[in-house]
């Protein structure tokens, strides 16, 4: 299950006072910056995008209400599935820019969609002027940012007045019927560190904390919706030889 900050209810407002902290702005000790090998990025595009991420991209773009002529930023774009989905919606006069911290992801993104623009950068320090975009999208990445509050504040900064921020994050771990048993098994065999690592993917699932984080960033008309999806995982045999060879 994912939680979607529905874009029609999450718009750029005049900057206001921001609280010093928000529950979901605190980084998990397991979410630090990392560089990926190219092979991992290629497998991400080949396997995980069709298995999981491709189904969410149209929902995110629909929530953002994208229209021809819009200028769109895809933050933490990975191999570019959201950017590729958004591009025809803003054509012919609009623009989509994908941004990611991992060069390997960007290499694959540029290979798959050479007609689109992809840049390397950090969500907490977006390399764009204030009020640059009509919409900012971020799919399944907020929980990985070292400083979520700074990242959302930056996304708000680059939005034009009336612009839309649409985020998609996993719902609470307890609402994941396919994943909760996996975490339980991991706790028995791999200990608390493994549980912490696996659970960190779901740290943004608290709706009230997520909405508060957005309000603190100067956004108005915030709305959180739940959407359901299915993860069609590759067979266990797909993981084994590739991952064992790397260790």
UniProtKB/TrEMBL annotation:
Residues 73-166 form the Methyltransferase type domain. SUPFAM superfamilies: S-adenosyl-L-methionine-dependent methyltransferases. Residues 19-28 have a biased composition (Low complexity). Keywords: Methyltransferase, Transferase. Its EC number is 2.1.1.-. One of its GO terms (molecular function) is S-adenosylmethionine-dependent methyltransferase activity. InterPro entries: Methyltransf_11, SAM-dependent_MTases_sf. It is an enzyme of class 2 (transferase). GO terms for biological process: methylation. Residues 1-31 are annotated as: Disordered. This is Putative methyltransferase. It comes from Microlunatus phosphovorus (strain ATCC 700054 / DSM 10555 / JCM 9379 / NBRC 101784 / NCIMB 13414 / VKM Ac-1990 / NM-1).
